[in-house]
Design a protein that fits this description.
By secondary structure, the chain is of the alpha+beta class. It contains 6 helices and 17 strands.
Length: 303
């Protein structure tokens, strides 16, 4: 574990991107965005989920496995150089090839010296229309994790994890000052008029809730743009952008637009965590002796 002098305040950069069909172009684009965020003062830069490709899980296609790569590998090597050059921490989502036929949806935390400080493998894997991720990804087996970096201890989770308070809690309990959620989420175009506003509000609300319940910062980093499946079959997904940073009491400090690329840069103040937790001591008042049932799928005995 590396020793660091942790700053009391630092800025984070949330890179909201559109993706092309060219993985190498996407990597170059991401590297440029890391440099841009660093130039704007960010000390941690987070990229969106699966940023090296269009969102391929709209269909099931075995040829897509060719996009996967090891960790360490090409993406972490290139972004490690970018991190070291800019002196920033980079959160790099990766379609991880662990072994032949075994793949994960992962996020590598790259420290300021360019080395991989740790890897998180997405724990919750969705299987919904146009989000057929169970075909591609094995569930994470490393648990919920926080890593020491040049800006202190941070946690990473990925997209569908953001709906689960258990993941946020277990990551925060490891001392993470900020939870990053690289994301690929959007509207089915035919549903947007009827349900779009409430879906976006629910997504924002649940993550603000994680910030409040755990007294830590939460950053959601989404892609943006309308992507249709390979071959043009289907209406595709309109990714809703809206990347944001929430403070430890759920206040939105900065937010990106829904319809275009953006880099959100906003400040994290570790003293704010102490201030909120003193006034709202949820961690103190937890009844850890009474939560055994949380490991059950469902409590059928209601007597």
């Amino acid at each position: 574990m590396a020793a660091h002098s942790t700053p009391g305040k630092y800025s984070v950069g949330l890179v909201q991107m559109t993706m092309s069909a060219d993985p190498d172009a996407n990597l170059r684009h991401a590297i440029a965005k890391v440099a841009e965020a660093a130039a704007a003062g960010a000390k941690v830069v987070c990229l969106p989920e699966l940023f090296r490709s269009r969102y391929f899980a709209q269909t099931e296609d075995a040829r897509v496995f060719d996009l996967a790569e090891p960790v360490p590998g090409p993406s972490t090597d290139a972004l490690g150089k970018a991190a070291k050059q800019a002196g920033v921490v980079v959160i790099a989502p990766v379609f991880e090839r662990r072994a032949p036929g075994l793949y994960h949806n992962s996020a590598a935390t790259i420290d300021v010296d360019g080395r991989v400080a740790g890897v998180y493998r997405k724990m919750h894997i969705p299987d919904d229309p146009a989000y057929y991720e169970k075909y591609y990804f094995a569930p994470g087996d490393l648990g919920f994790r926080a890593f020491d970096t040049g800006v202190g201890r941070i946690g990473t989770l990925v997209c569908w994890d953001q709906w689960y308070p258990e993941g946020a809690r277990l990551t925060a309990l490891q001392g993470a000052n900020i939870l990053f959620y690289p994301t690929a989420i959007g509207w089915h175009p035919k549903e947007k008029a009827a349900h779009g506003a409430e879906q976006l509000d629910a997504w924002r609300t649940i993550q603000r809730g994680h910030a409040i319940a755990n007294g830590c910062y939460v950053a959601a980093v989404n892609r943006v743009g309308h992507e249709t499946p390979a071959g043009g079959n289907g209406d595709g997904i309109e990714f809703w952008g809206s990347s944001f940073l929430a403070d430890p009491f759920g206040a939105i400090l900065a937010e990106a637009p829904a319809d275009r690329e953006a880099i959100v840069v906003a400040e994290v103040d570790l003293a704010r965590i102490e201030e909120v937790r003193r006034g709202w001591p949820f961690l103190r008042d937890r009844r850890i002796d009474a939560y055994g049932g949380i490991t059950s799928r469902f409590l059928d005995d209601r007597s």
